[in-house]
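User: Run a structure prediction on this.
Assistant: Running it now.
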Amino acid sequence: MPYEPGTTTCHRLIDCKDHIQSVLRHLIQLQNTEHIQAQLVSVHNQLEGLHDLQRVQRRSS
């Protein structure tokens, strides 16, 4: 991880995103997984949105 997470929630979100990235690296090597990859990218983006919200909330506290 390139930086220290600010909260337990941030740490969990970063961990989830890292796991999804790992799964995507494996899926990319398999045929006919494009639809699964697209779904995982969508979930990753949703987690990134939650992480952004967490960072904004932490800055405004």
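Residues 34-60 form the longest helix (27 residues).
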